[in-house]
Specification:
Elements (H helix, E strand, L loop, with lengths): L17 H9 L5 E4 L9 E8 L4 E7 L2 E3 L1 H8 L4 E2 L2 H9 L17 E4 L7 E5 L5 E6 H7 L4 E3 L2 E3 L13 H12 L8 H4 L7 H10 L6 H9 L2 H12 L12 H9 L1 H16 L13 H18 L8 H10 L2 H9 L1 H13 L5 H9 L3 H11 L4 H8 L12 H15 L12 H7 L3 H12 L2 H13 L1
Helix pairs in contact: 7-8, 7-11, 8-10, 9-10, 11-13, 12-13, 12-19, 12-21, 12-22, 13-18, 14-15, 14-17, 17-18, 18-19, 19-20
Organism: Pseudomonas versuta
GO molecular function: kinase activity
Protein name: Histidine kinase
Length: about 475
């Protein structure tokens, strides 16, 4: 799952921290500052991770072209280790006035293990202790840093992990293979029986029927909402929130619909909440990840703004694109539900591989990604095909097939939020083509994100309401 921080202030020029400079000088290591950019070879970038267990801490170094496989590491060192707690890591970094962990074993006074593949590079890039700044050193100098470290093979090349980016028709078979590989019981022949999905709640079915009815009335929506006390309370809470700035007190569900929220928004919010509540938010999660609903609300708000910025003649239904944002990470809940014994392992790998997308990690461990899971289940539940496509292709900025506007909007929203230090994952620049397909300039899209983030406090409040529902 993603990280949410307060909006960063104007960027400053990065320079190597004093503690790092002094250490390299003491070791007679020659270095050159290199600012991060997409053209840098990930095979030369040294990823540093600090792990621990009951025995103690261990620094692990490996290339960003690889994924740190905790199972292989456990086989190698005979210990089951996980990422050090964020507060402990901050204490260590704080002693040296560093922002991120540099690839220098001497800073932690703990044993160090490095991936042997690193020694195949004539030049290495080690982290300088500041995000976005690398120090280029020779292999000879890198070996000097590793004088007390041990080598091993515990990584998996990212190029060896094949994602199914465009063959959605194969998702059912892939899910079935993943379940067979990770369950001890006899696998049933029917996929829907195998993954033991909960039945779709009757409230969801009613909302779906209303959603496709062009003649739906306020009374019908009010009736469905009022039959679910938790949903009714949530609608009243939304309408009364500062985010919608209602000018008067909301006294009933009908008031909330007619005077503040509108039919379309109530239906889509209710549908998202009902689907989200059909699967519980997992108690285990990666360190520093954002709450599920907070991530959903931010993304949906940006998508709503992007949709309204599109040319009117090409603009899809705003309510449906908003719903795509709310549900974009629904597959996260499914992974926790379908693979409960292994979901913790996914979380631990996400913690120690911040340079790798969750899709790659899930493909490596399970043979299936959350996007494939989420899209397949929404299709199984007969959700609108636009939502299915949005979930399935949300990380592909080049997707131009059927209903392309929906995954393109999700992709742009996630990418622009990450560029503001809101979220995890790759910050690779979005291609011009995805903005052209949406009919929005890059500058206009950036303006949309800026306006959304001006209401960040109110969005957090709304996300908290979802969590309590």
């Amino acid at each position: 799952m993603q990280i949410f921080n307060e909006v960063a202030s104007a960027p400053t020029v990065l320079s190597t921290p004093l503690a790092v400079r002094r250490l390299l000088e003491d070791l007679a290591v020659t270095w050159r500052e290199v600012h991060d950019h997409p053209g840098l070879n990930p095979g030369c970038k040294v990823q540093a991770v600090l792990l621990d267990d009951s025995v103690g801490a261990l620094m692990v170094l490996f290339a960003q072209s690889h994924l740190l496989d905790l199972n292989r590491l456990a086989d190698l060192v005979g210990r089951r280790m996980t990422a050090i707690a964020p507060d402990r890591l901050q204490q260590i970094l704080g002693r040296h006035n560093l922002s991120v962990l540099p690839g220098l074993p001497a800073f932690t006074n703990s044993p160090c293990l490095y991936e042997e593949q690193l020694l195949q590079q004539p030049l290495l890039l080690i982290g300088a202790g500041e995000p976005g700044l690398w120090l280029e050193i020779s292999l000879e100098d890198f070996r000097r840093l590793l004088i007390n470290a041990s080598g091993g093979r515990f990584g998996e090349s990212l190029s060896a992990i094949r994602l199914n980016l465009d063959q959605a028709q194969d998702d059912g078979e892939a899910i079935n293979r993943a379940v067979q590989a990770f369950t001890a019981r006899r696998i049933q022949q029917r996929l829907e029986g195998t993954i033991e999905l909960p039945p779709l709640a009757e409230s969801v079915r009613k909302i779906m029927r209303l959603r496709v009815d062009p003649n739906v009335t306020i009374d019908e929506i009010t009736s469905v909402v009022e039959t679910d006390p938790a949903l009714a309370a949530q609608v009243m809470s939304w309408a009364s929130s500062s985010y919608y700035a209602s000018q008067s007190k909301i006294r009933s569900v009908e008031d909330a619909i007619v005077r503040v929220l509108g039919v379309d928004l109530v239906i889509n919010l209710a549908l998202s909440l009902a689907l989200g509540k059909s699967l519980s938010v997992p108690k285990d999660y990666p360190h520093s990840s954002a709450p599920y609903w907070q991530q959903s609300i931010y993304t949906a708000a940006v998508i709503e703004g992007l949709t309204r910025a599109m040319p009117r003649a090409e603009r899809p239904e705003v309510g449906l694109t908003y719903l795509a944002g709310l549900l974009h990470n629904f597959g996260y809940l499914l992974l926790a539900h379908v693979f409960p014994p292994h979901f913790s392992l996914i979380c631990r790998h996400l913690e120690v591989n911040p340079h790798v997308s969750h899709s790659v990690i899930e493909q490596h461990l399970l043979g299936i990604s959350r996007e494939q899971m989420g899209a397949w289940v929404l299709r199984y539940w007969s959700m609108p095909p636009e939502l299915v496509t949005a979930l399935r292709f949300q990380h592909d900025p080049h997707y131009s097939g059927a209903d392309a506007q929906f995954p393109n909007l999700v992709c742009v929203a996630l990418g622009l939020l990450r560029s503001r230090a809101i979220g995890t994952g790759s910050c690779a620049p979005l291609p011009d083509a995805v903005f052209e397909r949406l009919g929005i300039s890059r500058e206009k899209a950036e303006d949309v994100v800026s306006k959304v983030l001006e209401a960040e406090v109110l969005l957090r409040e709304m996300a908290a309401q979802f969590s309590r529902a």
